# Entry
Amino acid sequence: MVSYKRETERFHIMQTDPHDTFKALADPTRREILGLLKSREMTIGDVTRHFDITRPAVKKHLAILESGRLITVTPRGRERINAINPEGFRELENWLEIFDRFWDDRLSALKTAVEKDAS
# Structure
C-alpha cells in the first residue's frame, strides 16, 4: 500500500507543476510535435513545415511544451533548436508511477478477496 507521505514526496520530484506538463500534453498538435521531435531536433521553421498553422502558432505550442519541461530550447546561432527533454518525461513517468502502484495494490487486494471467496 502506498502511504500518503510517500506519495507527497513523489509529487515533489517533478521540477515543474504537473498541471503545466498535462496542459502541454492535452493538445493533439503538441503531441504531434513531440512525435516529430522524438526522431530529431528541429527549428521552429522545421516544425512549422509539418503543419497547416502559422509560425507564431507553432512557436506558442513549443513555448507550452517547454514550460511543461517536455522539450528543451537551445539557441544555436540565430536559430532556436527544439529537442525532447528526457528528464521531463522521466519526471512525468515517476509521477504516474504513484497511480500505477495505487491501482496495482487495489487490484491485488481485489484478486485476493475474490480468490478467498471462491475457495
About this structure: Confidence is low (pLDDT under 50) at residues 1-5.
